[in-house]
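## retry 2 of 3
previous attempt timed out at serialization; input unchanged, resubmitting
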Amino acid sequence: MQPSDIIKSSITYIEQNLKTDITAEELANMAGYSVWHYHRLFVQVTGMSISAYIGRLRLNRALSEISGGRRAIDVALEYGFDTYAGFYKAFVRMYGGSPKNYLSKSEVSVMFTEKELRKVLANWDVQQDLPILDVYTMDGTKVSGNVWSIGEDYILKAGSYERILTNLKVAKALAAQGFVASTPITNKSGEEYLE
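## retry succeeded, writing output
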């Protein structure tokens, strides 16, 4: 089994058990590696440490549940934060503001698991085992829960139909003027997007 397959299996496990206490030792034992070697592979494939990956995923899922109307304290405790204050501090570090302010200013993204994203990618003729990573700005702020880097050459965007069409028009107009722009590639059906 390839290292990337081992890490993909671990990511699936993490996604399915996000509300439990997941340790690096547990993941390394499942993979049959020492903690040190497993951690090195995890960072190589995902670009971040095990604890950072789990923490980021927990914050993203918690935000999604809070935006759905659940009480923040209940969600924070379910996702393994000892107190709301601990959740709040972690949230501010990642998003740069409080959950309330973030939700009032942002379009809340639909949370996708890696398995769901891979189903979407299957509609394009691209290598299917490329790593799927969130996109961050230079200062470490997450761009959006609706944008992912697929390997080194592709970006996958999700969101409202109108916003996707606007982005497509802008990208095509920039490319037509000679600017470097992320232009869409057609899917297997010849379309530039999926509904």
